[in-house]
Each structure stands twice: as structure tokens, then as C-alpha cells.
Amino acid sequence: MPMESSEAIEAARARHLAGSERLAQWLWPFTRLLLLALTAALLLRVLIVQPFAIPSSSMAPTLQAGDFVLVDKKAYGWARASLPLAADSGMAGDGGGRLFASAIPHGDVIAFVGPDGRDYVKRMIARGGETVELRNGLVLLNGVPLPCVPQNAAADGQLCREAIPSGRTHLSRDHAQGPRASFGPVTVPAGHLFVLGDNRGHSADSRVPAAEGGIGFVPEDKVIGRAARIFFAYDRGVRWNRIGTPVD
């Protein structure tokens, strides 16, 4: 068989290169769109909103196990805890402060990185310099009781509507009896927050030191954002009535 001439080889190479160039030109718009979509999704998750799964009933009735909530990461400014995988990398809560920081309002349900590196969702009750006490399930902030109007009794605790000084209200289970129904008073250290679960008798929150398996006081630079809305809920089936519900 006669060997191909150098001209034929060059012609074949040119056709191959031309085909590769046409393929690249055809693929580039799709690649660029994919890159833009991935970049937008990353920025959205880092700067704007992040989904969280609720694994337990510690925030019931406000949030229930199987709820998925969207956390507003811009609500109080950004800290290193806002970065994806910050807890795993050890970057969360190392004194880095917050960018464009704003005060966290009393009563907000917040997501934060706990002392064990896991993410938690609890209700903010007090900030640095304020005093917190519980007496038979009733919360006192700076010595002033937070009214909790009974709603109905249940097997897992009296359901009541608790009011904070700003006038906002939320549902909680007060659990007048139990090992943590009475607590304090304690003064929250500067730069920290005192948080409680709405299901007071079943929440290892700021009443329990980290050394005993609780959360203790939460450094403000470990706050990820505000729990804003339930976007999905599932428990042996989709709970359609909870989807889209704002977090009070």
C-alpha cells in the first residue's frame, strides 16, 4: 500500500482541527451558561440564602422535624460562619466579626454554628449585657416577665403565645415542670447571644453549657442568618400546609 503523502496528512490534520474548532464553538455557549449558573448558585448560597433541614422537635411547634427552611444570610451582615463548610474548615466563629453587621432583634429564629461544629436553629432571647432567667417555664428578660398566654394543653407541654418587649409574639411550649424549667438569672457576655428552643422541655440550648452537651452562650460571629421561611416539609408524606409558611 502506498504511503500517504505529507500533503494528505496535513489535509487530514487540518480537517480534524477544523472539526474540533467547530465543536468547541458549538459547546462554548452551553459551557458558559453552566459556569454562569454555578457561579450564581454559589453566590446565592454564600451571600443571600441557604437551605437548612430541621432534624428534631426542639423548635416545635414553630419548626418541626422534617421541615426545611430558607435562612436569610444577609439579615444581620456576613461573618465567616456564612461561608459554605465554614464549620468543617474551622473558620466559623474565630473572632472575624461581621461585615455590614446589624443588631439581631429579640425573638428572631436564627441559624448558627454550635460549639460542636454543627448547625443549629434556635430563638434569640437576649444579647450581650442583658439578664435572662426562667421561673417555672416563664422567661424573664432584664427582670421583666415575658407574658405567655395559654393556648391549649398537650401531652408534651402547655402551648402558649409568648410576647417579647417589641410586641412580637410566637408560640412555645412552656414546660413549667422539669430540670430546666427554672434557670438563672445569668448575664449574657458581651458579643454573645442567649438562645432557647421553643419546645422548652426538649431543647439543649443556652441553658446547658457546651461541656454538658448543650450550646451555652452563642458568639455573634457564629450566626449564619435568620430562619425566614419553610420551603419544604416531609414526615411520612409531604406536609403541604407547612410549605411557604414564614417562620415567626
Automatic annotation (TrEMBL):
GO terms for biological process: signal peptide processing. Residues 31-231 form the Peptidase S26 domain. Belongs to the peptidase S26 family. This is Signal peptidase I. It catalyses: Cleavage of hydrophobic, N-terminal signal or leader sequences from secreted and periplasmic proteins. GO terms for cellular component: membrane. Keywords: Hydrolase, Protease. It is a single-pass type II membrane protein. Gene3D superfamilies: Umud Fragment, subunit A. Its EC number is 3.4.21.89. It is found in: Membrane. PROSITE patterns: SPASE_I_1, SPASE_I_2, SPASE_I_3. The keyword Ligase does not apply. The lineage of its organism: Bacteria, Pseudomonadati, Pseudomonadota, Alphaproteobacteria, Sphingomonadales. Pfam families: Peptidase_S26. InterPro entries: LexA/Signal_pep-like_sf (IPR036286), Pept_S26A_signal_pept_1 (IPR000223), Pept_S26A_signal_pept_1_CS (IPR019758), Pept_S26A_signal_pept_1_Lys-AS (IPR019757), Pept_S26A_signal_pept_1_Ser-AS (IPR019756), Peptidase_S26 (IPR019533). One of its GO terms (molecular function) is serine-type endopeptidase activity. The active site is at S58, K122. The keyword Repeat does not apply.
